[in-house]
Design brief:
The chain is mainly alpha-helical. The chain is built from ten helices and no strands. It has helices spanning 9-24, 28-33, 38-46, 53-62, 69-89, 99-114, 120-127, 131-138, 146-159, 164-200. Helix 4 (53-62) crosses helix 5 and helix 7 (120-127) crosses helix 8. The two termini are 31 Å apart.
Length: 224
């Protein structure tokens, strides 16, 4: 495994996770067996990305130390806070989720619940999307484009094709979500990014007239 680059919060988390892996003889395939994302585990070990709470819990469980789950969650929260502080020091503007984005995410999770919460792998296969992309939409870290949202709904209808009533309900709710929730969420996201762009020019160390801003860790562009 390649050395961890840097000495920031992510690097510190990666070193601690590697120490846990060594101590427990844990492996990435074993974490996968417990439902963790293979990519997420590798990126966490490499110091490239902080794993979600869900993935972290599964790693800790897979590697045989479930009694340490609470401590690892606290550690993850500390690192996440440190990442936010690092971003502010670099002059990056944090863009928070808008109420419209949260409303869309909740509606998406609700329709997923109605279909029986199929795995992200199954939903991704049915929708023609990667499991990681599906997970990003479900946890609200990014917004789908209208086209990809249509793929999401089509995938759900395929997964419940043996239940005509449920299939019709999914199509009906999907149409409402597309025309109302998704549209409003994307507009709100655009406005939030514009506000962040304006604010970024006023941050210490920011060159006058600079319009560049970054989203915080875990927040991606809404056109995914």
């Amino acid at each position: 495994m390649q050395p961890v680059k840097g000495d920031g919060a992510l690097a510190r988390f990666a070193h601690e996770l590697r120490a846990l892996q060594t101590r427990t003889a844990g492996t990435v395939p074993l974490a996968e067996q417990f439902g963790a994302s293979r990519t997420a585990v590798y990126e966490a070990l490499a110091g490239k990305r902080l794993p979600t709470v869900e993935n972290l819990d599964r790693i800790v469980l897979a590697w045989g130390v479930p009694d340490e789950a609470t401590r690892w969650r606290r550690f993850r929260l500390e690192v996440e806070s440190a990442l936010g502080a690092e971003a502010r020091l670099r002059g990056e503007v944090k863009i928070r989720k808008t109420p419209e984005e949260i409303k869309f995410q909740e509606a998406l999770v609700k329709i997923w619940d109605q279909v029986g919460r199929p795995s992200r792998n199954d939903w991704g296969d049915a929708a023609g999307l990667s499991p990681r992309t599906v997970a990003a939409y479900l946890d609200g870290s990014t917004l789908p484009s209208p086209r990809k949202f249509d793929h999401l709904i089509s995938g759900l209808t395929l997964l419940c094709a043996d239940d005509d009533f449920l299939e019709d309900a999914v199509l009906e709710q999907g149409a409402t979500m597309r025309e109302e929730h998704l549209y409003q969420a994307r507009i709100a996201r655009k406005e939030a990014r514009e506000q962040a762009r304006v604010l970024a020019t006023a941050l210490p160390g920011r060159p006058a007239g600079s319009s560049r801003e970054r989203a915080p860790w875990g927040i991606q562009d809404p056109t995914g």
